[in-house]
Design a protein that fits this description.
This protein is mostly helical. Helix content is 81%, strand content 0%. It contains eight helices and no strands. About 5% of the residues have low confidence.
């Protein structure tokens, strides 16, 4: 898989920042004793940088940010930066205090790390939920458009002018129907789909009178369904 240039540049940028931080840190630390609390904090700072690089690779490898990517593209990347800044400040202060107890250092920074991991996991869960909801909405939009296409095909096939006109009206009503449904309307929508399938049989079988009746029934059911959609929102 080809790695995008901006991903490589982003990772290099964060690695460069980490190297610069190391140079400044070890100049400041000088001959001061590198205690266990120092190395504990240093490891957490390293983890913060690695996490930022990982988030950069995940969020910037996409071509544009769609609405369903927001949990992945914006809050998660922002939280990683906030965590990095918080860890740099906390870790550096602890590293510059040789007397700091390693247990205190570990507890403070594991709490910071825990908050960040919790946010990342919850953000990914929320993103997955948003994507599932959008997939359902797309399926429902396809459901309405598919029925409309079927009715338009029937109108082209129908020989009776009145039937052709009624089928055209039904297609228009389907076109402007609310594409977002509700679970409470699944049975009603399935009934409409079944009646349209039967309507197609009637049209192709030249049962024009029966087709007119089925068409009128479907239009009435569709209006009732659209009215309930508005109420249930």
């Amino acid at each position: 898989m080809k790695i995008e240039k901006k991903v490589i540049l982003g990772a290099i940028g964060w690695l460069t920042a980490f190297l610069i931080y190391n140079l400044i840190l070890f100049v400041l630390i000088g001959n001061m004793q590198m205690t266990p609390s120092f190395w504990c904090s240093y490891i957490f700072v390293l983890v913060a940088f690695l996490m930022q690089i990982l988030v950069t690779c995940v969020t910037y490898k996409r071509h544009g940010v769609r609405p369903r990517d927001l949990f992945l593209g914006y809050p998660i990347s922002r939280s990683a930066v906030i965590y990095l800044v918080a860890e740099l400040i906390t870790g550096t202060v602890i590293m510059l205090i040789p007397a700091c107890d390693v247990k205190v250092s570990f507890i403070i920074q594991i709490l910071l790390f825990g908050v960040e991991v919790t946010f990342l996991v919850s953000g990914l869960i929320a993103k997955d939920h948003v994507e599932k909801l959008q997939a359902k909405d797309e399926a429902r939009v396809f459901y309405v458009r598919n029925l409309m296409t079927d009715v338009q095909a029937m109108a082209q096939y129908a020989g009776n002018p009145d039937l052709k006109k009624n089928l055209g009206r039904l297609a228009e009503e389907l076109r402007y129907s609310d594409p977002v449904s509700h679970e409470a309307l699944l049975n009603a929508e399935q009934f409409i789909a079944d009646r349209i399938a039967y309507l197609d049989t009637c049209v192709r079988g030249r049962k024009e009178e029966e087709a007119q009746q089925v068409c009128a029934l479907v239009r009435a059911q569709l209006r009732e369904r659209n009215m309930k959609c508005k109420i249930l929102k």
